[in-house]
Amino acid sequence: MKDIxxxxxxxxxxxxxxxxxxxxxxxxxxxTTDFYDTPKFIVLLTFSGLMLTLLTLKYxxxxxxxxxxxxxxxxxILFAAVAVISTFLxxxxxxxxxxxxxxxxxxxxxxxxxxxxxxxxxxxxxxxNGFIFKLLLLGGAALSVLTLLSYFGxxxxxxxxxxxxxxxxxxxxxxxTAILAILLPLPLIELLGSRGGEGNTWGExxxxxKIKGAALGLTSNLINSFLLLLFGTTILLTGHLSTWLGGxxxxxxxxxxxxPSLRNFKLVYVVVPLFLVILLTTLxxxxxxxxxxxxxxxxxxxxxxxxxxxxxxxxxKVSVSAFRDQPFWGSGPxxxxxxxxxxxxxxxxxxxxxxxxxxxxxxxxxxxxxTLGGVGLLALLSLALLFISSAAKTLSxxxxxxxxxxxxxxxxxFVILAFHSGTLPFYIIGLLVLAAYFVxxxxxxxxxxxxxxxxxxxxxxxxxxSVGQSSQETIxxxxxxxxxxxxxxxxxxxxxxxxxxxxxxxxxxxxxxAAVARNDGLAAYQELVAAEQLNPYADxxxxxxxxxxxxxxxxxxxxxxxxxxxxxxxxxxxDRQNIQVLLQQSIxxxxxxxxxxxxxxxxxxxxxxxxxxxxxxxxNALVFSLDSFGRAILQDPLNPNLRLNVGGTYxxxxxxxxxxxxxxxxxxxKPDYANGYYNLSVALRDKGDLNSAIVAAEKVVSLVDASxxxxxxxxxxxxxxxxxxxxxxxxxxPAATTEGALQNExxxxxxxxxNPPEKIATPSAVKRPNSTxxxxxxx
Length: 779
Fold this sequence. Notes:
A three-stranded mixed beta sheet has the order 1-3-2. Among the domains are: 69-281 and 355-447, no CATH class; 538-736, Alpha Horseshoe (Serine Threonine Protein Phosphatase 5, Tetratricopeptide repeat), CATH 1.25.40.10. The protein is built from 29 helices and three strands. It is mainly α.
């Protein structure tokens, strides 16, 4: 029974791991809101849950527990523990638990599953290392081909996939090129010849087993050389600074460590692909010479959509400010977006990406500092330093044919994390590399121990890990395997139940978004109600449903409401009741969203906009709108758009003094904000201060691009002011427009939004500072 269980367990693990790895590289589906990460995470969760249950079942049948201990065990457990504590202490616990805006990576759920995944790998890889990595290299080759086909504009999938030049099956170009960068040492070391050296290992795959001797060596060399060319081309054409540095590190370390002789003929297999990659990259950088010359490679490189990444200085200031306020446990997993809106420096508004809200830091270390605090950063740094310590020994004395390339791959993994935040696919492959490295060292030494201890001695033994070494221990403690089986089975059922519910909810949410795209409001409403019932903790479902409710009510009012031709309209009593119910539901859903995620500026902004849009049918709606905008500003104090919206609300009720104050706030936060100056000019004009209005209008003209259509409108407006002639439409600033059918002041008040707040959340005025006095990195 034991032998049968172990045989089938190894087979199941091997097949399941292959499925997971290929899902990581290639799986995407149009059935979830996020086409890429959500399907991959579902497969990862399924793999981890099933294998954890089967592993504990094997322990129970064998009546012993065999554990592989590695130097990374304690830091990983500490990291997961910090994430749990940080989630419970977070002001947005549901976001920390499940992710922000349907992005599961970075949440507590993803952290726990990734840690479990690592321990499953270290305890089950053993003899699978070489086979798995050969398959992974072939998968990397296929991934490169698909990515390059998209780069060169070849459409091989139906819409909506493969339509953009930067399409790649992992989801983003960074994930693809980062994975390829940490795989680079494997073919490179095999070509150059490891000092630990069993030679090439392509013969382990069934398709190459019939090739023997010199033919196998030549075939392996050609395959590895082709992989270098393919990986290098993909990294350099579609990569990011972090993956360029990671790939360069992998190549340089491999060459420095092995120091191949110039007389080594195998060096040709390395030099040729590297030369071709450098040549191709050079051609992409050279513009066409002459008016008739063309360089398609240059044009493709210029048109390729590059990722927008938060810069280091801003990320440093945000993370250190978050650490200052929550030094130990941070703000919670998946909450970097809230840290960014709350702590970004004022000079960020001069950045060309000022209107983007970033949900990840410049790199993984700064992101962890802000979200998991000092203890979380300590765990991550311990993880990196322990691996570097172990890898340094391997670089000088490799223990197996895989240990050297895996050591370089692991170092590349941590270097890339220093220049970019992690992603789910990158972490899955990265953890596989780290686990395989320690397992390969263990397999070479054959370090096994059998322990017969009580519970306390077992815990103390497992807590002691040798730096730079891994070991395998067999533990026999009465009833412990059975207890672990019950716990693992219970946790797996719990995880599968809620994962199934939340995945189904996400499916309904995706259907709702598709219904909105085809303008089917009723279907969108029904799908969002279904999604919310399955997952009542997702604030994005609430805000989407709030907006759909309002859109349905507004559509009824537009279709059957009073018009110039029919002042009475054609609204029935049922229509009026439907409008009332839909608007009440809209406000209630938006309010619930702010309760679920009170730090979300987006939620407060949506609530404020809804209040403003129903001002004609709800008493005190504008008061609630101003209060909600104020709370949004408290979460995003340096956002000029929010100040502009508040100014527009005050302008709509003809409170020109406060409108001017908030328009001034907007331009003080962003001195080159043309829209802010235009709104300010209109408010000054209507207040009667024409001279100041002309000054603001001149600033608008100086800021607007002379080749744009807006420039002529701004110039006409300025001329009208100078001639003291009433300007053409729009007669009110854009921020104050009231086009909704439910904003008419003469409509009956049918929606009850409650009593107005005793004190509106009004932010203080903004002076124009020269810079933000925030922490700055030391040289």
